[in-house]
Amino acid sequence: MNELEKNGQYVKFCAYGFLKSLRFYDAFLLLFFLDQGISFSQMGVLYATREIAVNLCEVPSGIVADTYGRKHALLASFFFYILSFVIFYLSNDFKILFLAMAVYGLADAFRSGTHKGMIMDYLKLNDWEDQKVMYYGHTRSWSQKGAAISALFAGGLVMYAGSYRSVYLFSIVPYLLNFINIMTYPEVLNHSLSKKDRNATKNLFTYAINLFRAVKNRKVFQVINSSAIHTAYLKVIKDYIQPVMLQLAILLPILETMELKKKSGLLIGILYFFIFLMTSYASKMSFKLKRLGTERIPWVTLQVGLVCGALSGVFIYNEWWMLSLLSFILVFVVENLRKPNMTAILSDNVPNKILTSVLSAQSFYRTIVTSFLAILFGFLADLFSIGASLLIISTSIFLFYHLIGGMKLKKL
Question: Rounded to two decimals, what is the model's pTM?
C-alpha cells in the first residue's frame, strides 16, 4: 500500500499510545522527589528499583504474553500502573516511594514489547509488512502527542494547586480509558495458544529456546545492544532536564509575583508540550532515516544522542541553561527518530511468533543497563553535580560502546 490504511484498528493503536502517554506526573517526577527531600543518590536507587522490578518479570511476562494472550498481559499492566499511582499519591517517605516504583516496574514489565508485537502481527495479517517503520512511526507519534498534552495539562494542575502530588490522581483516568480500549482489540491479536495444546510448561520451554536462539544471533544482538543503550541512557537522564527548566523559571523576568512552584509548573508544562510536539513529528518522519541505510542507522544515531548529552552536561556545568535545554531536547528527538527504525530492523530478523519475547529480552537487557546507570548517575550528581554526572556518563558510554565492538552492522 502507498498510503496507510487508517481504519478502526489504526485508531485504537493510536489511542493506546496517546492515552498511555497521559502520565501527568512525568513532567514533574524529579521535582516531586526533591520536594519530598529525596537526594540524587536515593533517586538513583528508586529508578533502579523500578528497573530491577522490570528485570525480574520482563522475559517471563513476554513469554506469558505470547503464550496466554497479549491482551491479558496489557490489562494486567494497566491495573498495576493505576495501583502505583495511588501509592505515589499516598507516599510520604522513601519506603513508600520504593514500593510505588516497584509496582510501576511490574506494570512496565507486562507492557514492554507486548503492544509492538501486536502491531507487527496486525501488519503481517494484512500483508502490510513493508510499512513497518511508517506505521509504527505514526502510532508512536500519537504517543508523543499524548505526552505533549499531558505536560501542558499537568503544568496547569501544578499552577492551580501549587503541588506536584495531585497529578497522580488525575493520571488514573486515561489509564482506565486505555484499559477499556485494550479490551476492544480483536481476538486475533491476542495470540493465545490453542486449547488443543496439552500443557503450558512445554510451550513455555519451547518459547524460551526460540528466544535464546534468536538473541544469540550476533546481528540481532547488535541491534538489541544499540537500541537498548540509547533508550536506557535517555531513560536515566530525561528527568534531569527538570532542574534546568526550574532554573529558567527562576531567571525569566515574567510572572515575578507568582509563587515559584506555580510559575515553574506553568513554564515546565509549556516547555514539555513543545518538546513532545517535536518528538511526535520526529517519530512520524522516522521512516526518512532509512536513507542512511540499515547498517548506519544504529551507529550514527547513537553517537549523535551521546554527543548531545555530553554537550548538555558541559552547558549545565557552566550554567548556560538555554543551551543545555536545547542539547537535552536533541537527545529526545534522536530517540524518537531511531526507535521505529530499530523496532523494524529487529522485527525483520526475528520470527514473528516470538517477536514479543525478543522485544522483552531487549527490554530486559535495557533495564540492566538502566539500573546500573541510574545508581551511578545519582551518586555522581550528589558527589559532583548534575552537569558533571551527565558529562561523565555520556563520555563513558561512548567509549564503552566503542571498546566492546559497537561497530556498524555489516548487513542485516
Answer: 0.77
